[in-house]
Amino acid sequence: MCVKVVCVGGGPAGLYLAILLKRQSPSHAITVHERNPEGSTYGWGVTYWRALLDRLHTYDPESARAIEESSVRWHQGVAHVRGQVTRQPGDPGHGIGRHRLLEILAERARSLGVRLEFEDEITHGSLPEADLVVAADGIHSALRSRHGDDFGTQLTEGRNHYVWLGTTRVFDSFTFAFAETGHGWIWCYGYPYDGAHSTCVIECAPETLTGLGLDAMDEGDQLGLLEKLFADILDGHALIGGSSAAWPTFRTLTNRTWHHGNLVLLGDAAHTTHYSIGAGTTLALEDAMCLADVLRRQGAVPEALAAYERQRKAELLSAQSAARLSARWYESLPRYIDLPPHRMFALLGQRHSPLLPYVPPQLYYGLDKAAGRLEVLRRFKRWLGPRAARALHVRS
User: What does the alpha-carbon distance between residue 7 and residue 33 come to, in Å, rounded to a whole number?
Assistant: First the structure.
C-alpha cells in the first residue's frame, strides 16, 4: 500500500523517519519540509551512547556506518573543582556535529527517493494533502500549537539559565568544570564532537547570571568573561558563540496525547528532556524507529498512531524521571559542592537516583560505596530507592 507522508521539520527525527519508511516501501511518497536553508542548523555537537548506535545499525546500516565514522569517542568523565581534578571511568560516549549528522541523514534520505524541500515553511493552512502528517518541527512546533488544546500541551520552566557554545578546545573526556564567583557558582559541560571542536554548555542560577551581569552584556563581552572563568579547561582556546546572547531557562514540554486526526508529534514537538542527560537526539531517533515499526505492523494509520503513543510514553518514563532528577541536582548544587571533589563527582554520577535528594550527601555516598561492595545491599538499594523517594516526596 502506497502511503503519502508529509513531514514538517528536517531535524534528525523527521529525516530518520523518512529513511525508515522509504526502506520499508519504496512506493511511499514522502516529503520533508524544512523552513531553514540546507546546511544551516543551530547547536554544535550532540551526544549519544553505544546502545543507540547498535540500534541504528539494525534499522539502517548504511547511515549508521556514516554516523559512526564521523563520531568521536570518550571513555571517562573529568571534573574540575577548586583547582582539583578528579576522573571517573564510564560507558563509552560518542559525539557528532549536529551539522554533520543532518548532512548524513539528508544524503541517505535523498538516495532512497525522499523529497526534501528546504526554505519551505509549512503552516496548518498550507499543509499538502497526505495520509499522515508528522510534526517534527521542535519545541515551538507551529502544527502542534494550532491544536494545543487537543494535544494538552504543557510547558514547565526550569530555574537555572544556560547558553550553548562551541570551542576549538578538543576535550579528551566528557568534562565538567565548576567555577566559583562572588555571585555563586557557574559550571560547564564540555564534550568533543569532531577532531577540531567541542560543545560547551554553560549553566548557572538566576542570581549568578544577574550578579555577573551576563544578562546585560552583548555576546562578545559574555564570551570574554566566560573564557576567563573557564580558562583552566579552555587552555587558551576561545569560546564560539551563536546568533544570540540570550540565556534561556530550560522548558520541559509534555503533551497529554501525541496525535490528533492524521497529525502526529515526533521528537521535541512531543517531549523534551533536560540537556544534562544528553538524550534529546537519541529519544528523537527512537521516536522515529517506533513510529516506523507500528506503521509497518498496524497498517491503518489511526491504530498505528495510538500504538506509537502508548509505546513511547511508556518507554520515556525512565528518561523523563532521570532528566527531572538531573536538573534538580544542578539546581541544588550548593548541597553538594563543598564535598571533597571525588565525592561530589561520585554523587554527580548518582544524580538520577530518586533517593539522593532526601538523604544527606555524605551519608548517601557512604551507603553507595557499601552497596557497591555487597550484592545484597545493591539489591536492597534498588528496591528501597523509588519507594522511599515516593514516600518522602509525599510528606514534603
Answer: 6
Mapping DSSP to helix (H, G, I), strand (E, B) and coil, where does residue 34 land?
strand
Contact between 273 and 323 (Cβ < 8 Å) = yes
- What's the pLDDT band for 299 if we cut at 50, 70, 90? confident
What are the distances in angstroms from CA 8 to CA 40, 127, 351?
16, 9, 35
- The total of other beta-carbon atoms located within 10 Å of residue 202's CB is 23
Rounded CA separation 333/348 (Å):
10
- The upper half-sphere exposure of residue 284, i.e. CA atoms within 13 Å in the direction of its Cβ, equals 26
Short-list 282, 293, 350, CA closest to 316: 282
* 152 close to 251: Cβ distance less than 8 angstroms: no
Residue 396's pLDDT band, with cuts at 50, 70 and 90, is very low
> What pLDDT is attached to residue 375?
57
The DSSP secondary-structure symbol of 186 reads E
pTM higher than the cut 0.85: yes
Give the C-alpha distances (Å, rounded to integers) separating 63 from 23, 29, 107, 109, 316.
12, 20, 9, 9, 25
In tens, the pLDDT along 310-333 reads: 999 999 999 999 999 999 999 999
Q: What one-character-per-residue DSSP string does 118-159 give?
A: ES----GGGPPP-SEEEE-S-TT-HHHHHTHHHHTEEEEEEE
Residues 6 or more apart whose Cβ sits within 8 Å of residue 95: 45, 46, 47, 71, 72, 73, 74, 191, 192, 193, 194, 198, 199
